[in-house]
Amino acid sequence: MSRELDKYSSDEEVRLLMTIPGVGLYSALMIKAGIGDVSRFPDAGHLCSYAGLVPSERSSGGGVRRGSITREGSRWLRWIMVEVAHVHRRYDTHFTRAYHRIAGRREERVATVALARRLLRCCYAMLRDKKPFMNRAQAQ
């Protein structure tokens, strides 16, 4: 099975996704398969909505209430992004610093989903611009 997956490791988009700390070959392949052609999404927000990683919203009379994530769309893309977020927490990146800030004031699982959403937005930008992951935490 590993040899069959290795032939996909030379794909440019898979190699770009593997530059994110915590993303290996298997998860990069799942992310690429879940997203498909990145140009079909006008922006990262639409991709996050497609993955079901955005909060639900109920509004009435000018008041807005946000709830749990919508869980609409691709459950496999949502699942792999949450798994990547669990692994990514071990690294020191600007995303994990944001995760720790959110986890300090909210539940850990809420912070993990927020991290997964940020990572998916990063995947969108990387695939759109064809640029590898840059850790802004080390650049400062």
Overview of the structural elements:
The protein is mainly alpha-helical. 59% of the residues lie in helices and 9% in strands. A two-stranded antiparallel ribbon has the order 1-2. Strand 1 (55-60) and strand 2 form a beta hairpin. The mean pLDDT is 90.
Number of helices: 8
**Estimated helix fraction:** 55-70%
Average per-residue pLDDT, rounded, comes to 90
Shape: globular
For the biggest sheet, the summary is:
2 strands, antiparallel
Strand content: 5-15%
Spatial extent as radius of gyration: 16 Å
Give me the count of strands. 2
Q: Separation of termini?
A: 41 Å
Structural class estimated from helices and strands: mainly alpha
Spatial strand sequence of the major β-sheet = 1-2
Q: What is the string of helix and strand elements? A: HHHHEEHHHH
Low-confidence stretches: none
